[in-house]
Design the sequence.
């Protein structure tokens, strides 16, 4: 009697472990973006890019893609669909639109499904700058390295701001962006 009760209790415990465990996923898209940000330079450049991507809702889009698509696929199939970021990845936007993101040699190509409009995030090695290029060929600068101690950040209104890669410089840029966005 004792042996059968012990076996039944053990079976119930093991079954509960399997049935009630959760899988929140690895957040592959978001982690890849954060890892890429970590390769850009000093911690101050990383903070500037992090803040710029927060203002431009890049992080919000990658989190949404992870939550709604990538982690769900990973949960049901057991495979992470963005483990090798060579093939184009499809993600859904907040309003249900589908986007295709393709890693390129010098950045990322982003297309909205069903439209001929595309956006490219491009790193210009010669100028040491990150830029956004629209499908009609217009290029908008995000930021440019001046040295290992400062960058030129481009505000939403088109003005340039030289930012020291220090805590004070990052805070000054953050305040300038917040004030610039608030004035719109």
Sequence:
């Amino acid at each position: 009697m004792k042996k059968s009760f012990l076996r039944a209790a053990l079976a119930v415990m093991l079954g509960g472990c399997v049935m009630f465990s959760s899988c929140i996923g690895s957040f592959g898209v978001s982690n890849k973006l954060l890892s890429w940000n970590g390769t850009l330079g000093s911690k101050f450049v990383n903070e500037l890019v992090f803040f710029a991507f927060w203002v431009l809702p890049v992080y919000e889009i990658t989190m949404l893609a992870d939550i709604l698509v990538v982690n769900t696929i990973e949960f049901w199939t057991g495979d992470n669909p963005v483990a090798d970021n060579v093939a184009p990845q499809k993600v859904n936007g907040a309003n249900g639109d589908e986007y295709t993101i393709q890693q390129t040699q010098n950045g990322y190509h982003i297309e909205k499904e069903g439209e001929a409009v595309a956006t490219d995030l491009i790193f210009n090695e010669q100028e040491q700058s990150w830029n956004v290029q629209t499908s009609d060929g217009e290029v908008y600068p995000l930021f440019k390295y001046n040295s290992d101690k400062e960058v030129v950040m481009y505000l939403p209104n088109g003005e340039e701001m030289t930012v020291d890669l220090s805590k004070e410089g990052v805070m000054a840029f953050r305040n300038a962006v917040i004030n610039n966005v608030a004035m719109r």
Observations:
- Residues 13 and 162 are 60 Å apart (CA to CA).
